[in-house]
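Lecture 7, part 2: worked example. A protein chain together with zinc ion.
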Amino acid sequence: QAPVGAVRARLVGEHGWADLRGPALCTVETPEEARAAEAKLGPDPLDPQADPEPFLAAAGRSRRAIGVLLMEQNVVSGIGNIFRAESLFRRGVDPLRPGNSLTREELLGLWEENVELMAVGVRVGRIITTDPADRPGVPESEAWPVHANYVYHRHGQDCLHCGATVLKRDLNGRGLYWCPVCQA
Ligand SMILES: [Zn+2]
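Predicted complex, written out as C-alpha coordinates:
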Protein backbone atom coordinates (compact mmCIF):
# COMPACT_ATOMS: atom_id res chain seq x y z
CA GLN A 1 0.00 0.00 0.00
CA ALA A 2 1.31 3.44 -0.94
CA PRO A 3 2.00 5.84 1.93
CA VAL A 4 -0.70 8.50 2.44
CA GLY A 5 0.24 12.00 3.55
CA ALA A 6 3.50 13.11 5.13
CA VAL A 7 4.91 9.72 6.14
CA ARG A 8 8.32 10.12 7.84
CA ALA A 9 9.07 6.46 8.35
CA ARG A 10 7.50 3.08 7.62
CA LEU A 11 8.12 -0.01 9.74
CA VAL A 12 7.49 -3.21 7.80
CA GLY A 13 7.15 -6.65 9.38
CA GLU A 14 5.94 -10.06 8.34
CA HIS A 15 2.33 -9.36 9.29
CA GLY A 16 1.88 -5.73 8.40
CA TRP A 17 3.26 -2.27 8.46
CA ALA A 18 3.03 0.93 10.45
CA ASP A 19 3.55 4.48 9.23
CA LEU A 20 4.89 7.31 11.35
CA ARG A 21 3.04 10.50 10.43
CA GLY A 22 3.23 13.99 11.92
CA PRO A 23 5.78 13.27 14.68
CA ALA A 24 7.08 16.19 16.76
CA LEU A 25 10.59 14.92 16.08
CA CYS A 26 11.97 12.29 13.71
CA THR A 27 15.72 11.66 13.35
CA VAL A 28 17.99 8.76 12.41
CA GLU A 29 20.36 7.83 15.25
CA THR A 30 23.13 5.39 16.08
CA PRO A 31 22.32 2.83 18.83
CA GLU A 32 24.40 4.93 21.22
CA GLU A 33 22.51 8.12 20.38
CA ALA A 34 19.23 6.23 20.69
CA ARG A 35 20.14 4.99 24.20
CA ALA A 36 21.06 8.52 25.27
CA ALA A 37 17.75 9.82 23.90
CA GLU A 38 15.79 7.05 25.65
CA ALA A 39 17.42 7.90 28.97
CA LYS A 40 15.93 11.38 28.72
CA LEU A 41 12.35 10.13 28.18
CA GLY A 42 9.69 10.45 30.85
CA PRO A 43 7.82 7.34 32.07
CA ASP A 44 5.63 5.52 29.54
CA PRO A 45 1.99 4.83 30.54
CA LEU A 46 2.02 1.73 28.30
CA ASP A 47 4.88 0.18 30.30
CA PRO A 48 3.44 -1.91 33.17
CA GLN A 49 6.74 -1.45 35.07
CA ALA A 50 6.74 2.34 34.66
CA ASP A 51 7.16 4.49 37.75
CA PRO A 52 5.01 7.65 37.52
CA GLU A 53 7.18 9.54 40.05
CA PRO A 54 9.43 11.28 37.51
CA PHE A 55 6.29 12.55 35.75
CA LEU A 56 4.73 13.77 39.01
CA ALA A 57 7.97 15.55 39.92
CA ALA A 58 8.65 17.15 36.54
CA ALA A 59 5.07 18.29 35.88
CA GLY A 60 4.55 19.33 39.51
CA ARG A 61 7.39 21.85 39.49
CA SER A 62 6.75 23.33 36.03
CA ARG A 63 4.97 26.62 35.44
CA ARG A 64 4.04 25.53 31.92
CA ALA A 65 0.48 24.48 31.07
CA ILE A 66 -0.42 20.87 31.88
CA GLY A 67 -1.77 20.59 28.32
CA VAL A 68 1.77 21.29 27.08
CA LEU A 69 3.52 19.12 29.66
CA LEU A 70 1.47 16.02 28.79
CA MET A 71 3.00 16.07 25.30
CA GLU A 72 6.59 16.76 26.39
CA GLN A 73 8.44 13.48 25.89
CA ASN A 74 10.96 14.22 28.64
CA VAL A 75 8.07 14.67 31.10
CA VAL A 76 5.93 11.69 30.08
CA SER A 77 6.26 9.44 27.03
CA GLY A 78 3.83 8.61 24.30
CA ILE A 79 0.83 10.78 25.09
CA GLY A 80 -0.47 12.04 21.75
CA ASN A 81 -2.94 14.75 20.99
CA ILE A 82 -6.07 12.63 21.47
CA PHE A 83 -4.98 11.20 24.83
CA ARG A 84 -3.96 14.66 26.02
CA ALA A 85 -7.40 16.13 25.26
CA GLU A 86 -9.40 13.15 26.49
CA SER A 87 -7.50 12.50 29.72
CA LEU A 88 -7.77 16.18 30.71
CA PHE A 89 -11.49 16.13 29.96
CA ARG A 90 -12.13 12.91 31.88
CA ARG A 91 -10.31 14.35 34.91
CA GLY A 92 -11.99 17.77 34.61
CA VAL A 93 -8.67 19.60 34.38
CA ASP A 94 -8.29 22.95 32.59
CA PRO A 95 -5.51 22.34 30.02
CA LEU A 96 -4.04 25.79 30.62
CA ARG A 97 -3.40 25.35 34.35
CA PRO A 98 0.30 25.47 35.19
CA GLY A 99 1.71 22.07 36.15
CA ASN A 100 2.74 23.35 39.57
CA SER A 101 -0.85 24.36 40.38
CA LEU A 102 -2.05 20.75 40.17
CA THR A 103 -2.10 18.60 43.28
CA ARG A 104 -0.19 15.34 43.40
CA GLU A 105 -3.57 13.54 43.31
CA GLU A 106 -4.59 15.41 40.15
CA LEU A 107 -1.31 14.57 38.43
CA LEU A 108 -1.50 10.95 39.49
CA GLY A 109 -5.10 10.90 38.23
CA LEU A 110 -3.96 12.09 34.80
CA TRP A 111 -1.26 9.42 34.76
CA GLU A 112 -3.77 6.69 35.68
CA GLU A 113 -6.26 7.99 33.13
CA ASN A 114 -3.67 7.68 30.37
CA VAL A 115 -2.67 4.19 31.54
CA GLU A 116 -6.31 3.09 31.27
CA LEU A 117 -7.14 4.87 28.01
CA MET A 118 -4.00 3.60 26.27
CA ALA A 119 -4.77 0.04 27.39
CA VAL A 120 -8.18 0.34 25.72
CA GLY A 121 -6.42 1.65 22.62
CA VAL A 122 -4.15 -1.40 22.49
CA ARG A 123 -7.05 -3.81 23.10
CA VAL A 124 -9.52 -2.29 20.62
CA GLY A 125 -7.05 -0.91 18.08
CA ARG A 126 -8.82 2.45 18.22
CA ILE A 127 -8.62 5.32 20.67
CA ILE A 128 -11.98 4.96 22.43
CA THR A 129 -12.24 7.24 25.45
CA THR A 130 -16.00 7.45 26.04
CA ASP A 131 -17.72 5.50 28.81
CA PRO A 132 -20.56 3.17 27.71
CA ALA A 133 -23.07 5.41 29.53
CA ASP A 134 -22.14 8.29 27.22
CA ARG A 135 -22.78 6.30 24.03
CA PRO A 136 -25.96 4.33 24.83
CA GLY A 137 -26.46 1.36 22.53
CA VAL A 138 -23.12 1.80 20.82
CA PRO A 139 -20.65 -0.98 21.67
CA GLU A 140 -16.95 -0.24 21.99
CA SER A 141 -16.27 -1.99 18.69
CA GLU A 142 -18.56 0.42 16.81
CA ALA A 143 -17.76 3.62 18.71
CA TRP A 144 -15.11 4.85 16.25
CA PRO A 145 -15.17 7.57 15.09
CA VAL A 146 -18.45 9.37 15.92
CA HIS A 147 -18.90 8.10 19.48
CA ALA A 148 -15.25 7.53 20.32
CA ASN A 149 -14.22 10.72 22.10
CA TYR A 150 -15.56 13.50 24.34
CA VAL A 151 -13.77 16.59 23.03
CA TYR A 152 -11.17 15.59 20.43
CA HIS A 153 -12.31 16.95 17.04
CA ARG A 154 -15.70 17.79 18.58
CA HIS A 155 -15.26 21.58 18.67
CA GLY A 156 -18.49 23.42 17.91
CA GLN A 157 -20.53 20.45 19.16
CA ASP A 158 -22.25 20.02 22.51
CA CYS A 159 -20.28 18.57 25.41
CA LEU A 160 -21.61 15.06 26.16
CA HIS A 161 -21.63 15.83 29.90
CA CYS A 162 -22.83 19.43 30.25
CA GLY A 163 -24.07 20.60 26.83
CA ALA A 164 -21.65 23.53 26.58
CA THR A 165 -19.93 24.07 23.24
CA VAL A 166 -16.62 22.21 22.97
CA LEU A 167 -13.79 24.59 22.07
CA LYS A 168 -10.57 24.35 20.09
CA ARG A 169 -7.41 26.46 20.19
CA ASP A 170 -3.79 26.10 19.26
CA LEU A 171 -1.39 24.99 21.96
CA ASN A 172 2.25 24.32 21.07
CA GLY A 173 1.35 23.96 17.42
CA ARG A 174 -1.27 21.27 18.04
CA GLY A 175 -5.03 21.64 18.23
CA LEU A 176 -6.24 21.55 21.80
CA TYR A 177 -9.87 20.56 22.41
CA TRP A 178 -11.66 21.08 25.72
CA CYS A 179 -14.96 21.85 27.45
CA PRO A 180 -14.78 25.28 29.13
CA VAL A 181 -17.41 24.25 31.71
CA CYS A 182 -16.35 20.70 32.68
CA GLN A 183 -12.72 21.79 32.67
CA ALA A 184 -13.02 25.19 34.35
ZN1 LIG B 1 -18.79 19.95 29.51
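The longest strand covers residues 7-12. The chain has five helices and four strands. Keep this in mind for problem set question 3.
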